[in-house]
Amino acid sequence: MNHEDLRQREPWRPDELVLSPEDLEQIKYIEDARRLQAGIAILNFELQRLFNDPRLHQ
Rounded to whole angstroms, how far apart are CA atoms 3 and 36? Predict the structure, then answer.
């Protein structure tokens, strides 16, 4: 995967891919796949928490 410093990047835009097929092809070790899977799970959890936040639906 590309290990660029994500803090230096522009904010994510809805039309932008988070992971490209080329990124996924570069995963060579099971530990990398597990870290990626854990990161996606955390992201999904946080997104669900945000969508369920009653302050956002006022």
Answer: 13
Which amino acid is present at 1?
Answer: M
Domain limits for position 51: 20-57
Q: Which two tokens stand for residue 10?
A: 């522009």
pTM flag (> 0.70): no
Distance in angstroms between the alpha carbons of the first and the last residue of the chain: 39
pLDDT in tens, 34-54: 988 888 888 889 888 888 888
CA distance 23 to 1: 5
**Is 7 contained in some domain?**
no
